[in-house]
Design brief:
By secondary structure, this protein is of the alpha+beta class. It folds into 2 domains: about 80 residues, Arc Repressor Mutant, subunit A; about 150 residues, Chorismate lyase (3-Layer(aba) Sandwich), CATH 3.40.1410.10. The chain is about 30% helix and about 30% strand. The protein has 10 helices and 10 strands. The strands form 3 sheets. The protein has a 6-stranded antiparallel beta sheet. It has a two-stranded antiparallel ribbon with strand order 1-2. A hairpin with a 2-residue loop joins strand 5 and strand 6. The chain is elongated.
């Protein structure tokens, strides 16, 4: 570990020391600084590097083992697990609707909730509705096999008609919308970051307070009317957006740099 890594540990900030050590070592593993199969420094070495107790280091390593990032070999040491770098879901960002189709084809979905709710204040302008208007709210968890990739909350205009859980047992949301005459044709996307609250941490199998990708999408139908708003939360270890830069973008970056 480097001096910068050691300096990342902050005392008195409210985050337990063992969790901070866990986050720093996990970052080093996921970035490839510790190769698959490589033995990690000893508990004593980690304790000296971070200026913490062996108990703190032991707790951090236990969390890494729980996430299958390391394994302890009795009498030998702790090693980075072979195969720890699970394949990420990579999707192109060039075409928003192609992005949506790519995600749908690459993952399995579990519907967590389908309900009608009062339009949230931050969506009333987008949906051009009054505060007492009702929207459909669909909550889903998308996974690759048994591994959750992202948590999705979708809001739809009440104009699409009634919706229930059973509607999603036989078809995708976009097939259902198409059957009701709604075709998504354009939109905009905002990518930022958020911290996992207890509910998101449970669904995404991560730690409370872990950094997540936070993606918001505003979709319009074939007539240009607001049709759908989506919020995605994903762990950076499982999901990434790939962008290809052309000569125009590279020239812009050069000018800005």
């Amino acid at each position: 570990m480097s001096k910068d890594d050691a300096g990342a540990i902050q005392r008195g900030g409210g985050t337990p020391l063992h969790h901070q050590v866990f986050l720093v070592v996990r970052s080093a593993i996921l970035s490839g600084r510790y190769a698959e199969g490589q033995m990690l420094p000893s508990e004593d070495d980690f304790a000296k590097t971070f200026g913490v107790s062996r108990v703190t280091v032991r707790n951090a390593l236990a969390t890494l083992r729980a996430q299958s990032l390391v394994e302890k070999r009795r009498g030998v040491g702790t090693f980075v697990c072979t195969g720890r770098m699970r394949e990420k879901l990579r999707v192109p960002n060039a075409d928003l609707m192609e992005h949506v189709r790519s995600v749908g084809a690459s993952t399995q979905v579990k519907v967590l909730d389908v309900s009608r709710v009062a339009a949230p204040a931050h969506l009333q302008e987008f949906f051009q509705c009054e505060p007492d208007a009702q929207l459909h709210r669909i909550v889903r968890l998308r996974s690759i096999g048994a591994r959750p990739v992202f948590h999705v909350v979708t809001y739809l205009s009440d104009a699409v008609g009634s919706l229930s859980r059973s509607d999603f047992h036989r078809q995708s949301l976009y097939t259902l919308l198409a059957e009701r005459g709604v075709e998504l044709s354009s939109g905009r996307q905002i990518v930022s970051a958020a911290l996992a609250d207890p509910s998101l941490a449970r669904h995404l199998q991560t730690m409370v307070g872990a950094a997540l990708l936070y993606i918001r999408r505003f979709h319009y139908d074939q007539h240009g009317a607001p049709a759908e708003y989506i919020e995605f939360h994903a762990t950076p270890q499982s999901f990434e957006i790939e962008m290809t830069l052309g000569s125009d973008e590279i020239g812009t970056h050069r000018a800005a740099g």
